[in-house]
Design goal:
Keywords: Membrane, Transmembrane, Transmembrane helix. Helices cover 68% and strands 0% of the residues. It has 160 residues and is an all-alpha fold. It has one domain. The longest helix has 27 residues. The termini are far apart.
Amino acid sequence: MDNRNLYRLDDEPRPGTLARLAVEPLWPLLGLMLGGAWLGLPWFVLNGVAVGSPTRVREAVLAAIGLLGSLGLAFGLLYLWQAGILDKDSLQYAMLVLVVWKLAIGYALFVMQAATIELYQYYGGVLNRFGLPVVLLGAFFLRALVLNLLPFTLWFLVLS
């Protein structure tokens, strides 16, 4: 009889084959801050799947809400600017809403994953140490490439 399936905690992580890709949730948060939403949000989702987070579906939904919310806010800001309601100086201040939105989503994902990662480590899980190189590579080398992939302001605003 397999003893592993007899007793499980509901909030205990269930790592799979991607467990070797799991990192501290600090790294996806820094990736979001320095590289942009294109780096941080998918990384949070991958991290949740890698450790088998019991909240991985909620994390993926929150990441999708983060992208859709960024899209909606960017559309709204561009509309207000093109309609002449916001001038260039006001637009720069209004864009802080977009930054705060992304940081709030990133912090919420960080908090959701922190408990799971700690349980994962407590039960013997080992986290990878490639977080810093990925953040540095994404923030300083790949960011410009990804954000300039399409020549649309909306693309830049949503994914930055």
